Amino acid sequence: MKILFASSEVSPFAKTGGLADVAGSLPKALRKKGHDVRIIMPLYQCVETDGYTIKKSRKGFEVPIDGVMQKGLLRQTTLGDIPVYLVEKKEYFQRPNLYGTPAGDYPDNSQRFGFFCQGVVDLLKRLDFRPDIIHCHDWQTALIPYLIKHEHKDDPFFAKTALVYTIHNLAYQGIFEQKALAALGLDNSHFTVDRLEYYGKINLMKGGILTADAVNTVSSTYCQEIQTNEMGCGLEGVLQQRAHDLYGILNGIDYQDWNPATDPEIFKNYTASALSGKAANKKNLQKALELEQSPDTPLLGMITRLSAQKGLDLLESLLPKLQQEKLHLVILGTGDEKYMKMLSDFQKKPSHAISINLAFDQTLSRRIYAASDMFLMPSHYEPCGLGQLIAFRYGAVPVVRKTGGLADTVFDIREGVREPNGFTFDDYTPESFWEAITRALDTYKERKKWDKMVRSGMNSDFSWDHSGGEYEALYEKALKKVRV
Ligand code: ADP
Q1: pLDDT mean over 170-190
Q2: Helix (H, G, I), strand (E, B), or coil: what is residue 45?
Q3: Of 59, 172, 256, 436, which sees the most CB atoms within 10 A?
Q4: Average pLDDT of 299-317?
Q5: Residue 17: which domain range?
Q6: Could you read off the pLDDT of 210-227 as tens digits, one per residue?
Q7: CA of residue 17 to ligand 1 center, whole Å
Q8: CATH number, domain with residue 24
Q9: Same domain, 15 and 145
Q10: Is residue 333 lining ligand 1, measured as CB closer than 6 Å?
Q11: Which bin fits 160, alpha (ψ -120 to 50), beta or left (φ > 0)?
């Protein structure tokens, strides 16, 4: 199959969260299965400053943004042997961040991603690459299926192309005022309830869900959850309408990239059968972060976007208690102003137990995964969660709230499973979170039992080997719909 991935972030070029990991690793897994995969993304400032080889091309395009034709250019790099097309428009993408600052989103995001999506549709005809599948992700690329199915519905070029749309996080829908239609190259005829209109505004994710040939999200539990009133974020009706074409496919991670046996960024490489290297990572991290170097003190890691979704209010309630315990807590995160402030205020108090690192730092993240005994994810909701999968791989035992993809991957002894691999709690309360943490701390003291759990996580397989095949099957289903 010829497959085009359109994504607003792709690891290693640009990343704010799990979408980048998926858009950087699933294409590789599909390439390995023999497909012709290509990627298209915006050319952000960070892609240029990080020193990737970027080829120029003569291809350009012009699309209407707010009634004015705006020019863009196409450039290219590679991810292994996968071509990566980069859409260049300096005034939109040459910025320090991808979507906004801690104070909020960039005010022209409808123009920025309206430009990107219109550009992708326009460029496809000039690329000499007619995809069988265009695979779009989240609100930033939802306009692509929408444009192709409405504005290009009689265009023979797209007649045999199937559109697949993946929801990585239903909470971010791309909601704008009606006037943003002009930034998307659309007129007011699209402002109806069966198209983009949504409670007096426009909603791009709704457009993607309604028009794609197949829609999926990133775990089976989240797929069920988003069809309910409690967790549907206002789109449950639209999702129920597409229930026959809606699937849940668990994310994988790139087992070559995330590999403690070869990871060049960590202090010492190690495997499940030689865990002493993990102890060396703990010692070095304790030293680097000025924590006491003690091998028996449990080290709890938390690496996260600082947003309400991630259970930071639960963490906030427990910080004073955690500080009293014999443990080390290492937090790495960046995001909303509110939580940045909460953590930086806490950081001002001297602490020998808690290390707070307010940054986006991929090297430090790897060192924390490698050093941690436990990994905390008290999420309010979690579409899939990659943190716990990376934690398994690096031998850190997850302590998580049982929701979405966390419920599909972390199994607690209290559930009667044969091989427990973590600790879970149900109620979104500090008390339940604390109860799970204390059970983990107690189990940590039983060395044999603990090491068995560590190995169980390390030996499990959450690579793309399995889920890559599920995406192939999803693509086949989508193709059947356009090639009847
Ligand atoms: P989400 O996509 O909702 O942010 P996931 O668990 O799916 O959450 O994926 C998060 C990814 O981003 C993981 O690869 C995690 O290691 C990484 N990450 C999150 N915050 C940071 C940070 N501050 N520094 C480095 N990596 C981070």
Answers
A1: 97
A2: helix
A3: 436
A4: 97
A5: 2-252+465-482
A6: 999 999 999 999 999 999
A7: 4
A8: 3.40.50.2000
A9: yes
A10: yes
A11: alpha
* 146 shares a domain with 197: yes
Q: Are residues 243 and 289 in the same domain?
A: no
Residue 340's contacts (CB-CB under 8 Å, 6 or more residues apart) are 102, 306, 334, 358
pLDDT category at 128 given cuts 50, 70, 90 is confident
- pLDDT, residue 336, reads 93
Query: 335 CA distance to ligand 1 centroid (A)?
Result: 11
What band does 37 get if pLDDT is binned at 50, 70 and 90? Answer: very high
Answer yes or no: do 141 and 223 share one domain.
yes
Both 305 and 348 in one domain: the answer is yes
Residue type, position 441, single letter = L
In this structure, are 303 and 248 located in the same domain?
no
Residue 221 · residue 438 · CB < 8 Å: no
Closest Cα to atom 20, ligand 1: which residue?
304
Report how many domains make up the chain.
2
With respect to residue 261, please indicate whether it lies within any of the assigned structural domains: no
pLDDT for res 217: 98
Convert the pLDDT of each residue in 364-412 to its tens digit. 999 999 999 999 999 999 999 999 999 999 999 999 999 999 999 999 9
Q: What is the pLDDT of residue 286?
A: 97
Domain membership of residue 418 (yes or no) is yes
What span, in angstroms and rounded, lies between the C-alpha atoms of 96 and 47? 11
Tell me, what's the pLDDT at 49? 87
Do residues 12 and 119 share a domain?
yes
Q: How far apart are CA 378 and CA 105, in angstroms?
A: 25
Same-domain pairing of 436 and 477: no
Q: Inform me whether the pLDDT recorded for 57 exceeds 90.
A: no
Averaged pLDDT score across all residues of the chain: 96
Token pair 């309604």 in the structure block, residue = 210
User: How remote is the CA of residue 332 from the centroid of ligand 1, in Å?
Assistant: 10
Asked if residues 331 and 302 have their Cβ atoms less than 8 Å apart, the reply is yes
> How far is residue 228's CA from residue 226's CA, in Å, rounded to a whole number?
5
